[in-house]
Amino acid sequence: MLTPSPQDLRVALARYADARIEDARRSTDATARAVEDAAYTLCVMTGTQAVPQALHTADTMLGARPTGSSALRRATGTRRDDNLQAV
């Protein structure tokens, strides 16, 4: 697996957070797709198959404390589509 740059990883985390916030504010098909796309990208970048693991791995890769991602999950809630299945 290629290791993403810290900047690219931060952009992916921000994109995921923004998509989750927008979807929570006003859920539409487009916002749901944006969450799925951002989650997929984050999982690919971290080599994981589920968003919670991707967030933890991203925190570890950035040298951050894993508690930051748990705050995001508490703020946005957990959705069933947070687990991606390998195709």
TrEMBL record:
InterPro entries the record matches: DUF5133
Bias type Basic and acidic residues, positions: 78-87
Region (Disordered): 65-87
One family name in Pfam for this protein: DUF5133
Protein name: DUF5133 domain-containing protein
